[in-house]
Amino acid sequence: MMKSFCSAGGFQWKFLLVVVCFLMYQLNFLNVVPEAMFKTYQDRSEALVLGKIYGDVNDKGIPNANLGFINRGGKDPSDVLAVYLRLDGNNGFTPLDITDANWAHGFATFGPKILFGKSAAGVIGVGENEFRVGQKFALSNGQTREVIGVENLGQYIHLTYSGDLLNPNALGDRNITLSPGDYSITPYPKQFGVQAIFLSKIWEIFPSYFKKIFWLQALSSLFFSIAVVVLTFQISQCIDKKFGTIFFLCMLGSPWVISFARNLYWVPFLWLLPVITSFIYVNYVKKYSYSFINFIIFGVVSFLTFFLKSLAGYEYLPIIVIFSMLPFLLEIVKPIKNRIINKPYYCLLVNFLASIFGFMAALTMHAGMRAGSILEGIKETLILEGFKYNFIGSIANSPKYTGIDDSYIHIFDIYVSGWRTPIIFGFFEGMLFPILFVVSLLTVVLNFIIKSEDRYKNFIIWSSALICSCSWSILMPMHSAIHTHLNFILWYFFFIPAAFYLVFIFFTSPENLRCLTKWREKNLNTCSLEKFELIKTNNFTLLRFILALSVMFGHSFPIVGKGSDPISVYFLQPRAWVGAIAVEGFFFISGFLVVGSFVRRGAVNYLLSRALRLYPAIILYTSIVVFIVGPLFFEGNVFQYLATKPWLNFYNVPLWEWNYNILNIFNNNTLAGSTNGSAWTLPVELRCYLLLFLMGIFGVLDSRVRANFASIGLLIIAIWFFKDFPVFGLNERYRDPLIYFITGSLFWLNKDLIPLTWKLLLICMTGAFFAIHYGMFYLYLPFFMGYMMLYFVYKCPAVNLDKYGDLSYGVYIYAWVAQQIVWVKDQNPYTNFILALCIVLPISYFSWHFVESPALLFRKKLKGSSFVPSFLRQIAK
What we know:
Oligomer: single chain
Structural class: mainly alpha
Mean pLDDT: 86
Distance between the termini: 70 Å
Low-confidence stretches: 1-8, 865-877
Shape: globular
Strand content: under 5%
Number of strands: 10
Strand order of the largest sheet: 2-9-6-7-8-5
């Protein structure tokens, strides 16, 4: 088996990869991990191992355990991280290297004091109880002083010593060595702790120069580097080189794995040993042949690897078991004639039994050490420690944590939709993980739709990877809810590599793309969005009217001072409210329709259409507010009103900004002085129109590939780098409308690929529900909502509102001021809504039939007139 490894690709390559991994894991070579996280990640768990080493060095045993916290004073081990300095300095401590007017390299210039950093969560320093009055300490020059005072000041400790002031420049080495103290060890009996025994022996035989925690961590990094490289080549041989390469890059570039790799408590190379055993066995049989002896050897080695991992800790064993089953699961889905192993079920069974027996053997050894009898030890380990993290604990009367939300929805929200750190090499912060999750699932589904030859293999990889990475959270939800710093690592074993692999091979396979094209031509002829878009009878006018009324209804409650509307309270909050959902719906519809308008009609018609849709109505609105509403409701006479310069409100008309209000109007209302709380979206709409115009005149919309790449790029910038988005990024409120506008454009650009079916509608409704209520996949809410709206527009029975006109724009811009006009103290919000509607509908009807519609009809005449600038005519050509 070792020969198989050495021959696959050359020993030199493997050695080089091990060196690269070691540099990343031990030194954070490319600074993939923030320095603070890299230095202190999981240091408290590591302190358990260091407690054993320190105890052995100072002949302090740990009763009934091989792990423990070193503490000095008090039962609460609040200063457990001080063990790092105790071991590295051989009970010596180095002052902080601070030099200013009062300190010289940590030694006070104003009195006999020395400054130390105090240990805390994530901070390695001196223990709070480290120094005691009357304790002696030695200096590097041979002097001895006595501690006469200790002050704990925030993150610092001031030590006051006897005798004259010390000059650090005369000392050479600033390290001080304490006389032996009354240290105690708090046992940690939850694990056997074989890693602590091993590392303590290593520390004992290390030469004095290497007696540093750094070198123990280097040993862990080296072992894990070797394990990663070995597994990489085994995966390459068993599955394919693409998977092996992606697995290696994920292990090499993950900030979580890099932080975790050198940890002395988790000893992560032990996690990979059972997996390596399974892959090596399959590759050995593939290269040579099956024999019963090799089968038995495989079972024994698997047992030993699971046994060793269990002795170092029981956590996350299900993940390792499922990962180690992958090569046998892939054998099962192969045609019988192509199988490497004739009966992979037996290998699965042996692998599973090896894990069970390995766990039980370790549990037995641990129980015998922990308690007076093995049965008592097993009871304490399982009931007191294991079952308290899941539902069995309530049955077995295990102690339970309180005040922690361990629901699966909450855990999903943390580890999927709530992922905010980079995934690999410091890139892709924020919401990339849920994107990767959904896109990889989509590729698996598409493999079945197009009947790809590898569909079963890819399904096994994706599903087993998902179950593998999620298994601990499913079995131990309370543990996952508490240890949120660990569970992100589990996605790399091995869901993230599998997801990247499946996405990569799907979109780089010419055969898949050909099959997808044939399937689309065969199945989307009758149900694609493109076919429905050609139908003239639809519900766009009805939908826009409903959205405008929703905004108005949502505003009725804050306008009368009654908080939020019941729809938002019971169905949408805390992540959304009905007005915001309606506004976002407007922008999705706009993005869907106007990109089609530009592509079909050209730049000139597009500009004229957008300008004549926006400006005539807003000019009429501003005129009514300035010349009618203002004088009628102004608190003062006409001359005072004119003195406020109300005509400045016409500066709002260009719609680049909406900054002006009528002064001293509606002063007694709940929302005093506000004439329009909805119009802020109009500058966003104008910017979106101009963005699309620029894309069109530069030829981006001439090709679907270019248009999709540009739109997806803009969507990424809007989601993750919005502050850097030109023109939009200065106002955070513009972000969501822009995202929905771009999403609508993407729907139109790919309308021939989107089927309108009730099955997808059900999926989108479910997705929207979980996105709004639980924040799960919230990134996809624009797509869920957009699909639901288009299904309503094209598939639901058409309601012809066009005979009355498109009143939605008028309702939207006049609603707020009408609601302010009808406001009275202690008014019911429903009364406000109905009374305002009685004003809004007639004005909106007038605006459509006498202003908006005639303006749109005038477009045709204006387009052919000499009024149109020549450069626009050239663009149109």
